Hints:
Layout: E1 4-9, H1 13-27, E2 32-36, H2 39-51, E3 55-62, H3 70-80, E4 85-90, H4 95-103, E5 109-112, H5 117-128
Parallel strand pairs: 1-2, 1-3, 3-4, 4-5
Amino acid sequence: MKNETILCVDDEAIILIAMKRELKTYFKDRFRFETALDAIEGLRIIDALAKDGVMVSLVISDWLMPGMRGDDFLMRIRSLYPTIKTIMVTGHADPRSIERTIDEAGAYAVLQKPWNRDELFAAVGACVGPEASPA
């Protein structure tokens, strides 16, 4: 079983399917990929994986989701799991939320939806290390 995991969180299933497919195509078998439809489910997945000794290396999250916005979610991750890198993708975030996501939540990047594949791959590669590039 792969020990490094990338978690994608978005309330739109079609977005999760597309992102997971693109990442798996690019990074091949380098990572285990998990998905969650909201921040609460995302936190449950991170907690469960941590209990099983599986390291979540990166969380890629939407901003506008029911229950908990992406910036709040990424701040929660930073406080509970400071080693997890984060990226936010959004089509709706206001400039203050984007600033907060970078400054307070420590996100590596905020990408606009629809994301540019090369920007997504570069941001993910920067977060998980150069060995993450495909062979």
